[in-house]
Design goal:
This protein has ten helices and twelve strands. By secondary structure, it is an alpha/beta fold. The structure holds glutamic acid. Belongs to the class-I aminoacyl-tRNA synthetase family. GluQ subfamily.
Amino acid sequence: MLPPHGRFAPSPTGTLHLGNLRTALLAWLFARSQDARFLMRVEDLDTGRVRREHETQQLADLAAIGLDWDGDVVRQSERLDLYADAVARLDADGLLYPCWCTRREIREAASAPHGALPEGAYPGTCRDLTAAERAARERSGRPPALRLHAGSARVTFDDRLLGPLEGVVDDLVIRRNDGAPAYNLAVVVDDAAQHIGEVVRGADLADSTPRQLLLARLLGLEPAPRYAHVPLVLGPDGARLAKRHGSVTLADRRALGESAEQVRGLLAAGVGLAAPGEAPSMRDLLDRFDPARLPTEPTTFDAAVG
Ligand code: GLU
């Protein structure tokens, strides 16, 4: 069995809000309560949106609420060779094809019914191009992305919190048309290379898991990690927590006079690990932590109430 290393993998594209911080705290609790190592991986492949100052701020906020991690912070931008190697392996196995579709073309084509594939899935336009169609696209000069021949694979897994889940995998992008490895590929390569035994992350990523499991299988990177998708934090309007919901970052809360320990208490209270207004230590939280008692439904945070 793999050692059950845990990890948190933030994308430095903005400030972490209370929902992100709570996911990080839970990932830390899952790992540390099993005496596992806890790794910090910065997912900075989206060069258009990533800022180094966001990374610095995110890591400072995570440390301020009490998280520690083992070893150096790992940055995906420093591991491009690993992803290129994985892309080359899939390609050598005949599992990839070039795709010239724009987002708009996909949206329009995907609105037509496509059998088993979920809504928004790639309908396969570039999979079966005639030689003439392909030549025309090549002449366009637009660089292609690379997609996986997923064969509408049906993948099931047993989520530690959500129970049995399944998904049909569409032909996901493996390498973007700007040459960057796609999120799903990089995550799978890194989780395997870093010996992650348990992935704890927000429930919004549960839909990506069948894709990642299929990739792990095709790349021979099994056993894949176990997954625990933790509940999201919603604003009072029922939408995923965001800046417009008010004081939702550590800096915002500090500006209201709250300490980092009080913010940690607020995060813990949202998942039943603290009483309202209490500021438990990390040790207290570890003592109280029991995955079986975590909520599985999203919770609501109203910044006006706190
Ligand atoms: N970097 C991703 C995010 O910030 C998380 C990826 C993961 O945990 O698998 O949404």
